Amino acid sequence: MADDSLKTLLLPLALIIVLFGMGMSLTPADFRRVLIAPLASAVGLACQLLLLPLVALALITALGIPGETAVGLMLLAACPGGPTSNLISHLSKGDTALSVTLTAVSSVVAVFTIPWIVGLSMGHFLGDTTEFQLPFLKTLTQLAIVTLLPILLGMGLRKALPAFAARMARPANVISIVFLAVVIAMAVLREDDLAAQFRIAGPAAVALNVLTMTLGFGLAALFRLSRPQRITVSIEAGIQNGTLALAIALGLLNSPNIAMPAVVYSLFMFVSGAFMVIRFGCQETNTLAP
Length: 290
What we know:
This protein is an all-alpha fold. It is built from 12 helices and no strands. The chain starts with a helix and ends in a 9-residue tail after the last helix.
C-alpha cells in the first residue's frame, strides 16, 4: 500500500508542484513568441518532437536494448523540456525567452504525442502479450491533469497576483526538487536488480543526452541561428522532463525497468548542463555573437 501511494500519489504530486512553479514563470507572450521567431522555434520544436524519438530508436537498434528499457528510452524521448532546461539555458547565456517558449509549447504538444509514441513502443518492443497497458484517452486525460492544469493554474496565479507569484516561484521549485529527489530515491531503491538495470539503461540514456545536444547545436548552426539560439536549441534538445517520464513509468505503468532510463538521464543531464554553463556561460558576452 505504501509502495502504491509512493508511485501513484507522491510522484505525480511532485510533478504537479514542478509544473505549477513553471506556470508561475510563464505568460501568454511565451506562446505567441513562436510567431515572432518562427525559424528558431521550428528548429527547436523539430529537435524535441522529431529528432529525440528518432535518435532514441537508433540507439535502441544499435545497442540492442531489450523490451522495457527500450520503451523507457522512447518514453523519455517523447517527454518535453522542463524548467531545468530554462535555468541551464539562462546560465549558459542562451536565448532564455526562446527556451521558455520551447518548453511551454512542447509541454502542451507532448500531452498528445506521449500516449501515441509510448503506445506504439510498447506494442513494438513488448509485443501483444505485454502486461502493460497505456489507453490513449485515459493517458491523455491524466497527462492533462498533471501537466497542463498545473501550468494553467500557475499562469493564472501570476496574472492575478504577480508579486506573490514572483516571490513563490523559487521556493516552489526548491521544494519540488527536494520532494522529487526523495520520492525517486524511495521508488527506485526498492528494486533488487538496480545495478543490472543501470548497466543496461545507462549507456543508452547518456548517449541520448550527448547526441541530441550535439545534433541540436549542429542543426541550429546549419540554419544559421544566432549563438544564443544555438545554445538554447542544444539544451532544449538534450534536457528533458525526466520527472514526467518517471511519473508515467512508475505511476501509470508501475514499472521501475521502464523508469530506469529516466533515472540515469535525470542524473547525467546535470553533468551535461554543467558543461554547457562552463563552456558558454563563462565566456565574455562579445564571444556570443552570431
